[in-house]
């Protein structure tokens, strides 16, 4: 190696730079230059409009804007995407049925299709803000767990063998639907208490604090110490590109001590395909490492369908729910041993990996640029990290070496008591959440007019979402409270342009 290169590498290492085995020293230097936060807010940055690189779509803005395939997919890729789309939208039915290739739903389930929760590939809808809303919530899940009581249980958690201990009767998730002849597990009741927040310049905002109850329990009492973690279905765009971000780039943000009270934490989780402990990236607590594994988990937990990674035909039925195990399942010997055979699972994973992020709107608008500057100055970028260049060796060629702008570090942060669910998942504790990507967030209401924000959908607007920030994000939130009304409007205008 030339001395100059060695010096350069040493300098980069001491700056906390990531190693990135997929790049030459020259490329690494180029990438670090491109991904450094900008200091110039007078005009958009190069390529900023194309926030998902060559995968970005430039399409008419309407309710289908999250449902397009990545712009750079090959012809074969598009065919696969279309088949996957069909499976994502299809309503599964209970076994046995005449349509043998799509039965096996349940016996316990939360919804009949992926699309029922990920509305038009965007986020789901919460029960609504009626003070006494009793509802058959679809897109809102309640994860259930209990604290460890024995040494063996503590070991299972600390070794990572289990991310959480399921409730002994009801399992890891409340399924509020069941096939005919079987009781459902119960229903979700949400009650909201309004909280008034005063902002500089005489404005006020009203935040809605949710409280969850489970009613009409179908299988007897739940353990008194059961912990409930509510989760709303997030949008599906750009996920394959998030998987293609190099782990070193993510961990560099975890390691960096920026002196700003922010310390991102990785969630190390089990990769069921390889058996390895790997970086969690997906879901609100980064509990899943890959799009494929989360998609298979959704078939199992949310719909009660088996696939190679989650082979039980009875989903989240527990030993205490014998009636659930006695129900027929939908695996067809001539189609393979799973209700969702590997071939179909691959189509769904491909689809989930290749939903396109739309291009930015008006990145050169003066108000948008002013809002962008405020976003940087308030240190929102301490967690919502603007840009990355994806791996050169990403699994799928279309995801390789793309400059992308997801506005996330994919790490866990303590978000304070207001957002805490008190429930751990792997290394994520009861106050921690993964920074969600912000790309596409400005089109949320175009795709689903009833959509709301944050892990449980409690925030009815982008401003409410920001005002709920606490813990490591308290300082950023306080800066927004102290802004003039015009500045706050600019900040929101920037988010709406994403
Ligand atoms: C009952 C509602 C529901 C159904 C049905 C559902 N999902 Fe989800 N989905 C969710 C929720 C809630 C989350 C977040 C879970 C968490 O944080 O643990 C999620 C997360 C995801 C994610 C991760 C997204 C991200 O940004 O981290 C993927 C991928 C996904 N679902 C795919 C699917 C697929 C594929 C199907 C159909 C097989 C499906 N989902 C069915 C509610 C649902
Ligand atoms: C310490 C890390 C951190 C900082 C700083 C931070 N955020 Fe967040 N942000 C998060 C996390 C984590 C969530 C998800 C919290 C939840 O769902 O409970 C989130 C959620 C959001 C959401 C809602 C996203 C969605 O999909 O529902 C918006 C909008 C948002 N942040 C904007 C901002 C803005 C604007 C700032 C700066 C004023 C900021 N954030 C500062 C970590 C941070």
Automatic annotation (TrEMBL):
Source domain of life: Bacteria
Pfam families: DHOR
Signal peptide: 1-19
GO MF annotations in UniProt: cytochrome-c peroxidase activity; electron transfer activity; heme binding; metal ion binding
InterPro entries linked: Cyt_c-like_dom, Cyt_c-like_dom_sf, Cytochrome_c_Peroxidase/MauG, DHOR
SUPFAM superfamilies attached to this UniProt entry: Cytochrome c
Transmembrane segments: none
Record-given protein name: Thiol oxidoreductase
